[in-house]
Design a protein that fits this description.
The complex is a heterodimer of chains A (about 210) and B (about 375). Chain A has helices spanning about 10-15, 35-40, 55-60, 70-75, 100-110, 125-130, 155-165, 185-190, 190-195; strands at about 25-30, 45-50, 65-70, 85-90, 110-120, 170-175, 195-205. Chain A has about 210 residues and is of the alpha/beta class. Chain A has a single domain (about 10-120, about 155-200), classed as Vaccinia Virus protein VP39 (Rossmann fold). In chain A, strands 3-2-1-4-5-7-6 form a seven-stranded mixed beta sheet, with helices on both faces. Chain B is an alpha/beta fold and about 375 residues long. Chain B folds into two domains: about 15-185 and about 295-380, Alpha/Beta hydrolase fold, catalytic domain (Rossmann fold), CATH 3.40.50.1820; about 190-285, Rna Polymerase Sigma Factor, Chain: A (Orthogonal Bundle), CATH 1.10.1740. Chain B is about 35% helix and about 15% strand. Chain B has ten helices and 14 strands. Chain B has an eight-stranded mixed beta sheet with strand order 1-4-8-5-9-10-13-14, sandwiched between helices. A two-stranded antiparallel ribbon of chain B has the order 2-3. In chain B, α3 packs antiparallel against α4 (about 220-235) and α4 (about 220-235) packs across α6. The longest helix of chain B has 17 residues, at about 360-380. The model of chain B has no long low-confidence stretch (mean pLDDT about 95). The chains are: A alpha/beta (about 210), B alpha/beta (about 375). The interface between A and B is medium-sized, with 23 and 21 residues.
Chain lengths: ~210, ~375
């Protein structure tokens, strides 16, 4: 079994670049542990992943990634304030029950957070809804509305509005296309052309204000 | 007799070792010499990097896997997890399992002769703690030429020994596997143990623990103790699934001489246990459970205790275990995370309560197997 992937998916690589050497890191919804395995090997992080999918937990254990079976919506209060350097959550925000609370908790547990999620404001989603009058189904969001784990889909603009409301400062934003590749056009018109965004977050000095 | 199963270690022969080196116990007493009985499965590699120590729980012993005789009806107590292709794969690991000090299956214990009196120790056998067990197990490791365990593994009280090992001998443990475990007993846990002890004390055959001198044994008390314990090892759902309200004998409609299935099951469990286990050992083991609290000498800070350790950990809990609930494993995980130790935790959904750790539950085997596979790869076996 490979301990760590030799190549990392582009969005995860972009995140990995944002992680300092030796950081203490919590990965919410760590999946099969690709990011953590890579960061353990190349950044010497002290990292832990939270996951509830049984097969993914076993996969993490098998490759030597620390994985803890815990529910992001219920159990983040177990973690002490400021007990991590960084909390990461990749493509999980849309599947949690209380996204705003989870974001708050992330930035309670650590001074910095990284969040990625699919953009429901992408032009394909808009076109699909406009022309078919039905909820979009795509390669990134392949589920029917009645049978989807993605219960809280939002657009980049929605997310940024939420951050402003909750006093979360957006420290950086990278937008990638459906193949997890960055490009200049989508950066300018991100809410229309971006498929997935990677946000760096920190707590703003005072609640209600954002940069 | 049909052939033994191919995934069993087969016929095993218990071994004995006597240590003439004094062992200073937590209670202040010193055992000048003690004997341990143990079994080994698999082969120690040339690098001596593939040794796994299995620690037993309250009523366990050295016979964890395989068979003593071809005619044995039952294999060792952890046959589900030890053997070729099993989580503790004997094609890769050298597995060591012993009967703990104070036991009644061949290691020095209350039934042994006290050299000072020429009589059995009985109730005079010193109190034993999990720390004492770990020290005595370290002497066994020295005897076997094992500098460092690839893993120390145990369920319940056995898991506590795995944790204590990693704290007391940080250089000697690479991995700790603690299944259905807890950082210390709750008041409720201690209460159940005390009911069990009082059942033994109140048996007229107990004779203050000197029953051997009277040629009797407090089997009735031990049976009651086991019955109480056994109920706490099962879940409500598990008992319901197994027995429901099935009647073994009598007439429920006439409310006459009714014995429910669960009653006869408990009687059987209690009776058979009381015939093969020693009451003084049972008292000693429940006390060791009660006393276990590795955080105590670190200012009640469990994370500070684990900060000494250099091991990585796997914790497994079971959703219907109310003796050592999932929450207790979560406490351990949180302390290990605070201590920056590598740790993974799986909470297995199974209806069998605390005893689930002995059963071949698919997801449990997958998780345990995946972790041990990792341990083996690291040891290059």
């Amino acid at each position: 079994m490979n301990p760590a992937p030799t190549t990392l998916r582009e969005d995860l690589r972009l995140i990995a670049e944002m992680v300092p050497e030796g950081a203490r890191l919590l990965d919410l919804g760590c999946g099969t542990g690709d990011l953590l395995a890579w960061l353990q090997k190349h950044r010497k992080v002290n990292g832990y992943g939270l996951e509830i999918d049984h097969d993914k937990i076993t996969a993490c254990i098998h490759r030597g990634v620390n994985v803890i079976e815990r529910n992001i919506d219920e159990d983040l209060s177990d973690y002490d304030t400021g007990s991590f350097d960084l909390v990461v959550m990749t493509e999980t925000l849309q599947a949690v029950r209380h996204p705003a609370k989870v974001l708050d908790e992330m930035l309670r547990i650590a001074p910095e957070g990284i969040v990625t999620f699919p953009n429901f404001g992408h032009w394909r989603c808009r076109l699909h809804l406009a022309t078919h009058g039905r909820m979009p189904v795509s390669s990134h969001l392949p589920h029917s509305w009645y049978d989807t784990p993605n219960i809280h889909l939002c657009t980049f603009a929605d997310f940024e509005a939420l951050c402003a409301e909750r006093g979360l400062r957006i420290t950086r934003r990278l937008v990638v296309d459906a193949n997890y590749r960055p490009n200049n056009v989508i950066n300018r018109w991100s809410n229309l052309f971006g498929s997935i965004a990677i946000y760096g977050l920190a707590r703003a000095a005072a609640p209600g204000r954002s940069s | 007799m049909t052939a033994l199963p191919s995934d069993s270690v087969g016929i095993v022969v218990p071994q004995h070792v006597t240590f003439d080196k004094p062992l200073a116990l937590t209670c202040g007493a010193v055992l000048d010499r003690h004997e341990l009985v143990y079994e080994t499965y698999g082969t120690l590699n040339a690098e001596r990097s593939n040794a796994v120590l299995v620690c037993h729980a309250l009523s366990g012993h050295h016979h964890a896997a395989g068979y003593h005789h071809e005619s044995d009806r039952k294999p060792g107590w952890w046959e589900t997890c030890i053997g070729p292709g099993k989580p503790m794969d004997t094609n890769r690991f050298f597995v060591v399992s012993l009967n703990n000090l104070g036991g009644c299956h061949g290691s020095t214990g209350p039934g042994s002769i006290n050299p000072a009196t020429g009589q059995a120790f009985g109730p005079d056998f010193p109190a034993i703690t999990v720390r004492d067990w770990v020290r005595s197990q370290a002497m066994l490791a020295d005897h076997l030429g094992i500098e460092q365990w690839a893993a120390v593994v145990g369920g319940s009280l056995g898991g506590m020994q795995a944790l204590q090992w990693s704290i007391d001998f940080p250089e000697r443990v690479r991995h700790g596997v603690a299944i259905a475990c807890a950082p210390r007993l709750s008041a409720q846990n201690i209460a159940f143990n005390e009911i069990a002890r009082q059942a033994i004390y109140s048996d007229p055959c107990y004779h203050g623990g000197r029953y051997a001198e009277h040629g009797v044994a407090p089997t009735q008390g031990l049976m009651l103790a086991r019955m109480v314990g056994h109920v706490t090892y099962q879940s409500d759902d598990g008992l319901r699934e197994k027995f429901g309200r099935e009647v073994a004998s009598g007439d429920l409609e006439l409310a006459r001489d009714v014995q429910f299935q669960v009653e006869s099951y408990l009687h059987y469990q209690g009776r058979s246990f009381s015939q093969r286990f020693d009451a003084n050992t049972y008292l000693l083991m429940t006390r060791a459970l009660d006393y276990f609290d590795p955080a105590q000498e670190y200012g009640d800070d469990l994370a500070a205790a684990f900060a000494r350790s250099k091991a990585s950990y796997l914790l497994v809990s079971f959703t219907t275990d109310w003796r050592f609930s999932s929450e207790r494993s979560r406490e351990l995980v949180d302390a290990l995370v605070r201590a920056r130790r590598n740790v993974s935790h799986a909470d297995i959904d199974a209806p069998y309560g605390h005893d689930a750790f002995l059963l071949p539950i698919k997801r449990y085997m997958d998780v345990f197997g995946a972790y041990m596979d990792r341990v083996a790869s690291e040891a290059s076996v």
